[in-house]
């Protein structure tokens, strides 16, 4: 073995030590970088998904409605409430027809049955006259094709048994659906 051979062996030993050291530190370093990068990518994807869901589920619906739509829903709820709760025995058919023009769906069917079976006989027999006045109304929920309006109502009722007006104040949640660009009542729930 010559001096050159000893130098080559020493260089080879140093290279082997450096390679062994690189395997120990570099082998664990590279997967950690990929793991951290993968976690960051997943977090970004989740944040993007959440932002997209919020846009389509919350923000976008709000932007598809405006003050005119809200006022239109309030006006329709106000007019429909007055029509539903106001009638005279002399004009029952016209009053009920006017009320029905503000209704749709199952509530229209219910109203037809209710007025025929209960209101008409009582109104004719006892000469019941009732007049409704909307005191206040405001939108509770508003979507492009549906709305819920809270309506505060004063109602005056007279009959042949009680000619003095009986006053009643109430509040109603009026659920509405837009049909052919017109707000119609689908539910009428006293609160």
UniProtKB/TrEMBL annotation:
<feature type="transmembrane region" description="Helical">
    <location>
        <begin position="33"/>
        <end position="57"/>
    </location>
</feature>
<keyword id="KW-1133">Transmembrane helix</keyword>
<keyword id="KW-0472">Membrane</keyword>
<dbReference type="GO" id="GO:0016020">
    <property type="term" value="C:membrane"/>
</dbReference>
<keyword id="KW-0812">Transmembrane</keyword>
<protein>
    <submittedName>
        <fullName>Heat shock protein DnaJ domain-containing protein [Nocardioides sp. JS614]</fullName>
    </submittedName>
</protein>
<keyword id="KW-0346">Stress response</keyword>
